[in-house]
Structure formats: C-alpha cells, structure tokens
C-alpha cells in the first residue's frame, strides 16, 4: 500500500496582478491528504490549480507550509520533486524530446541508468502502457490523448509516490478520456487531480471543493459533487466565507 502523505498547514498564496496589487489566490488552508484518490472541484479561477502548484513547489507560499512524504516543499524541494510527478493540462508542456521513446528515456535519466538500459526500459514501459506503436513517433504528431498517455508514462517511469494532475481530461474526446481516466485510476501512486470531469471526481475516494481560494466542501464524493453542481446550476447559493459545516467529513485514511 502506498503510504505517502501530503499535508498543508495554514498554507496561503498571494500573487501580484498586472497593476502590482497583491491578491490572495489561496486562503489559509490546512489539509491532511492521505487518501489514494482525491479530486479538487470548483469553477475556473477559484484556486484548484494554485493548490496543486503549491504542493509541487511551483507556486511560492505567502504563509504556512506544505510537506510531501515528510519533506518541506519550501526547504526540501529537490527531495519533494524526486517523489512527486505533475501532469499538466497541456501535456505538450512536458514532452520536450523529438520522439516518444526519447522523451521516456529523458525521464529515466533521473534514475541514473546507463544509455542502453534507458533505451531498453523505455521500450518496456511503452509496451506495458500499450503505446509501443508510438515509440518512434514525433511527439508533435500525437493526438491529445496520446500526448497525455505518453506524459503519464514518463512520470510513472521514475516511480513517484504522488501524482498531481491538472485537468488531465479537459481537451480529450470520449475514447481518449476513457483511456486516460483508466490509466490514472490504476496508477500505484497517490493521485490528486483538479478536474471539471465530475464523473472522474465521483470515482475518487475524497472530493475537495475549492471556491474563492478556500476549501468550502470536503468529504464523500457524491455529497460534495452534488453540492457543487447545485450551486453551479443556481439551485443553491455559492458558499460564503465560512465553509458549510454539513460538507465537512471525517474520512478513512485510505479506501483503496
């Protein structure tokens, strides 16, 4: 069982807008995230991606702290990144080598493997993922779903304990979405995914609703997704500054 841990302790993020005015994009947030599959839901611009980027050390904190597997993100970033993988909404941002197999080999350099072994291992990983037929394909000639699957294979090549995924299904058709979701839900790493794909969110062990930079709902997937949908459809008001108490749940550490 994966025993990795992600913890936020009063973590907050502030950014400067174009006019140089400070704006809070993540209010003081304390979370313990031990579940195997966690989804972040909420409207655009409410803080889901900010939360993911802060966990990955891609966004500086104004206050508080975040740790991954006991390593502080601010002071032990290299240790954090050695155990964490980030899947971007646009996989083209992380596919940087000319061909698929070369991109997987680049990921494998982190393991200190010799060149021939990197080549062999890349071939093995692509075959295991059902992507062997793409090995010599240009990364620029891949479909959206193929890019996302190759990017995920590159992340898994180094055996991360935690994967953060930012809108991994947002630009995919039904066929590619199904394949990407299947792969994500079967990865051995813990998964924290920011998503508008509510079917994917409902399949997770825990859902966290982020609104106006705050956690306003946290608990069982069905209840939290239903509450979010109700607000989005105008049947109930958007949450105020105080998280609704009926949306807070005590969850088991790992339902996997």
Characteristic key phrases:
single chain; alpha/beta; four-stranded antiparallel β-sheet; 8 helices; 10 strands; 31% helix; globular
Characterization of this structure:
- This protein has 256 residues and is α/β, with parallel strands linked by helices.
- Helix content is 31%, strand content 24%.
- The chain has a six-stranded mixed sheet, with helices on both faces. The chain has a four-stranded antiparallel sheet with strand order 2-1-4-5.
- The longest helix is centred in the middle third of the chain and has 14 residues, at 115-128.
- The termini are close together.
- 41% of the residues are buried.
Compact summary:
The chain is 31% helix and 24% strand. It is α/β, with parallel strands linked by helices and 256 residues long. The termini are close together.
Instruction: Please mark out the parts with pLDDT under 50 across 5 or more consecutive residues, or reply none.
Output: 241-246
Query: Could you give a short account of the major beta sheet?
Result: 6 strands, mixed
SSE arrangement, N to C: EEEHEEHEHHHEHEHEEH
Structural class from helices and strands?
alpha/beta
Which secondary structure elements does this structure contain, and how are they paired or packed?
Elements (H helix, E strand, L loop, with lengths): L5 E11 L5 E11 L4 E5 L6 H8 L7 E6 L2 E2 L4 H5 L2 E4 L12 H9 L6 H14 L15 H13 L5 E5 L7 H13 L3 E5 L3 H5 L3 E6 L2 E6 L1 H12 L24
Parallel strand pairs: 3-8, 3-9, 6-7, 7-8
Antiparallel strand pairs: 1-2, 1-4, 4-5, 9-10
Helix pairs in contact: 3-4, 3-5, 5-6
């Amino acid at each position: 069982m994966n025993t990795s841990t992600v913890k936020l302790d009063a973590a907050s993020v502030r950014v400067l807008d174009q006019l140089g005015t400070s704006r809070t994009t993540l209010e003081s947030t304390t979370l313990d995230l031990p579940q195997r599959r966690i989804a972040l839901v909420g409207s655009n611009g409410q803080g889901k991606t900010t939360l993911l980027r802060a966990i990955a050390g891609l966004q500086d904190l104004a206050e508080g702290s975040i740790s991954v597997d006991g390593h502080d993100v601010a002071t032990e970033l290299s240790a954090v990144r050695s155990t964490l993988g980030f899947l971007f909404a646009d996989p083209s941002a992380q596919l940087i080598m000319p061909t698929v197999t070369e991109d997987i080999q680049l990921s494998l350099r982190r393991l200190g493997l010799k060149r021939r072994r990197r080549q062999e291992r890349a071939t093995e990983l692509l075959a295991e993922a059902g992507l062997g037929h793409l090995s010599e394909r240009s990364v620029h000639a891949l479909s959206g779903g193929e890019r996302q699957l190759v990017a995920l294979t590159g992340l898994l090549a180094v055996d991360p304990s935690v994967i953060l995924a930012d809108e991994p299904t947002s630009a995919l058709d039904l066929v590619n979405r199904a394949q990407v979701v299947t792969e994500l839900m079967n990865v051995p790493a813990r998964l924290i995914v920011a998503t508008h794909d509510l079917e994917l969110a409902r399949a997770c062990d825990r859902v966290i609703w982020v609104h106006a930079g705050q956690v306003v709902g946290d608990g069982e997937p069905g209840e939290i997704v239903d509450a979010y949908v109700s607000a989005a459809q105008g049947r109930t008001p958007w949450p105020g500054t105080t998280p609704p108490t009926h949306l807070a749940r005590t969850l088991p550490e790992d339902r996997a």
